[in-house]
Predict the structure.
Amino acid sequence: MTIKNGGKGILLTPEQLKSRRQRNVAIGLAIGLFVLLFYAVTIVKLAPGLLGGSV
Amino acid sequence: MSFVGEGNGAAAGAVAISVATPGDYIALLKPRVMSLVIFTALTGLMLAPTYVHPIVGFASLLAIAVGAGASGALNMWYDADIDAVMRRTSRRPIPSGRITRPEALSFGLILSAFSVFTLGIVANWFAAALLAFTIFFYAVIYTMWLKRSTPQNIVIGGAAGALPPMVGYAAAAGHISLASFVLFAIIFIWTPPHFWALALVKAGDYERAGVPMMPNVKGPDRTRLEILLYSLILAPIGVVPYFLGFASPVYGILSACLGCMFVGLAIQVFRVRTGAEADSRAKRLFGFSILYLFLLFAEILSERVIALVAGLLG
């Protein structure tokens, strides 16, 4: 249960804080992996053309 | 994140902050189904006569897996009421109150869009369209329509689970082929006896949830007959990859033996109809059906890997 802090906002319980931190880390990792994946696929798809042009 | 206590058991009007962990969101993706999708899609991808760069292949498989997971999340969003009633599914993230239905819906829709877009970018738009159709078929045609309206739900809905090898093949080749269609057909015909074997044991659960599965609509005897008939169709279809020339004689012998065992277990389910022994036979067929599909696809996959390695070595 969330504790209301006398109009100063909401105090999260330790469980809520922990799960929020875990979700944030997971979202960060997912975005990072997504960027890496697109970077790698871009290199793989562009590399033959780039090498073909320079050789 | 949830700011209203819907489905969380919080008092009306109270502010509820989500306590869902990443594990709960992974559970929404039905990881066990995802692993089967990855396996069958990889087999389809490897079957294609086109070279696929490992990174492109990995990215394609990831997109297909996430697409399958997204349809699982949409299924859990829509079926939360059924899941809460059934013992097998009552601990899922929505019925247990860790994730709300709107959160699951958003999660499923966003992942669906991302997976289709990613597959279109990394592989081709034909495969992406096929993946989009698979998600639509599972989430809308099966979950929203067939599941609650006809005992043939998993027969027609089985198409969604059978499509991943075709999507994998299309991701590599840019089109589909007879070989990929045969893989589709194997899973499609395998699905009814697989699920009905489970439904025979869990008929009470489905009855309580109001899901018209074959045993609680047509009766267990009719279900046993249908299991046997589908097994008799499945056994020869399982051998087709050998006759079409995209699997070796080893596969031919293996699939013929496994097909005979499948029919043998289906006959046992058909003959033993009462008591704990009947449940035991149904459970045995259910377990064997998983092994059957795994071994068929593993054999095709390993043959393709061996051929690929042999080709690379000269």
About this structure: The mean pLDDT of chain A is 83. The radius of gyration of chain A is 22 Å. Helices of chain A lie at 14-54.
